[in-house]
Amino acid sequence: MNADKRYWTFGVVCLFLIFSFVYPAYAEGVAHTSAEVANGHAWWFWPLLLLVVTFAMGIFAVLGGVGGGVLFVPIISGFFPFHLDFVRGTGLLVALSGALAAGPGLLKLNLASLRLAIPVALIASTFAIIGAMIGLALPTNIVQICLGATIIGICFLMVLAKKSEHPDVPKADRLSSVLRIYGVYQEISTRQVVDWKIHRTPLGLCLFIVIGIMAGMFGLGAGWANVPVLNLVMGAPLKISVATSKFLLSITDTSAAWIYINKGCVIPMMVVPSLVGIMLGSFVGVRLLVITKPTVIRWLVIAMLAFSGIRALLKGFGI
Amino acid sequence: MSGNLENALKVGPEQARYASILEKGMYLGLVLLLLTFLVYALGVIKPYIPIGEISRYWGLNVHDYLQQANIEDGWGWLRMLRYGDFLNFIGITVLAGVSIICYLAIVPLLFKNNDKIYVVLALLEVVALSLAASGILTVGH
């Protein structure tokens, strides 16, 4: 898609959203002079704020190098009047949509590896179903506390985890050889051709059990955990890890999302503004990427996450 | 670039097919979601929960929400498609269901390549996703 077409699409979607919110708000105001209020505001205040906040979130997610889902659940559950059940359902759909939007391109560029993703996805998605069921069965305050602790853990992971552009994999392990998980890709900038293979596959697959459970339980998406495991544990090159992780979310989050959809944790008035907000924000974020300092933004994202994590902990403890 | 390297850099047929179906499903789901939301938000079709009353429900846990709004869980939304708010579930279902179609579409290619392990893995994934989508796996607060 060329730049002009993108700007047109962006403009049309913005107009669509403004019209979608302004018209019903106006009509409702005419029909009922005393419109329904939610937390001291007219009903449309929160969905509109959700659109604005998720738009900003989309920008920060791109600039901070994280997925939208990991920002969405702690921030929206911490500062909006929506119940955690609906926030998790929406969070999974937000992460799923981002993954669906990026997945086809990454597969076509041969950066996401289907052979690597299929076994990993089977484990992660199966355990995401179990995680979703655990998350929906536990009392909300317990989930809030676990969510807070997980978010703070993610902050530490973001600060401490190193990344390796091309990890040293002396020999592919037996399992990855049997599954023929290896490949070749070309660095577009340097034209360098990179052969890759992986090792420690059984350990990596075991770690995806934990990742799947957490993704399903908290509706977080799981890019924050997928990339370190694929890159540092299994030894996939960073580009392959990031791309495969993004594609992987389209499968992991699908399985957990179905549990939340079937349970009824989907309110369209929350889902659509969030989804469109994040997507438009990501679009702007990509444009801003060339003129901002990612390190500063990354620290800002970590600070935002830490604050939301503490807020989730306090909410869980009823403070 | 040598022919061998060119072949190695080429995307495999199953990956290309998966990507192509995923892309179409993603666009279809997003367009349906945006259009049905427009129908809902503009009041073209009457919603089940009046748009101004939705804020009464989003603070409740899902069990209380379903009970108080008298909404069925699982695939019960199919019976409520005459309402504007439930129309949005069509797009959501397409987005959540496209991966199952992608997996089913690559099975014949994997089978043709005699890639038995991946045929089994792909079919197991279809079973897992279908089980999640079926609504059989239910939990409660």
Key phrases:
heterodimer; A: 319 residues; mainly alpha; two-stranded antiparallel sheet; 12 helices; 4 strands; globular; B: 141 residues; 5 helices; elongated
Q: How would you sum up this structure, described in words?
A:
The complex is a heterodimer of chains A (319) and B (141). Helix content of chain A is 74%, strand content 4%. Chain A is mostly helical and 319 residues long. Chain A has a two-stranded antiparallel ribbon. Chain A has a two-stranded antiparallel ribbon with strand order 3-4. The radius of gyration of chain A is 20 Å and the shape is globular. Chain B has 141 residues and is mainly alpha-helical. In chain B, 65% of the residues lie in helices and 0% in strands. Chain B has helices at 3-9, 13-41, 62-69, 84-112, 116-134. The mean pLDDT of chain B is 91. At the A-B interface, helix 1, strand 1, helix 4, helix 5 and strand 3 of A face helix 1, helix 2, helix 3, helix 4 and helix 5 of B.
Helix content of chain B: 55-70%
Strand content of chain A: under 5%
How many helices of chain B in DSSP terms? 5
Secondary-structure content class of chain B: mainly alpha
Radius of gyration of chain B, CA atoms, in whole angstroms:
20 Å
- Return residue spans of chain A where pLDDT drops below 50 for at least 5 consecutive residues: 30-35
Shape of chain A: globular
What is the H/E order of chain A?
HEEHHHHHHEEHHHHH
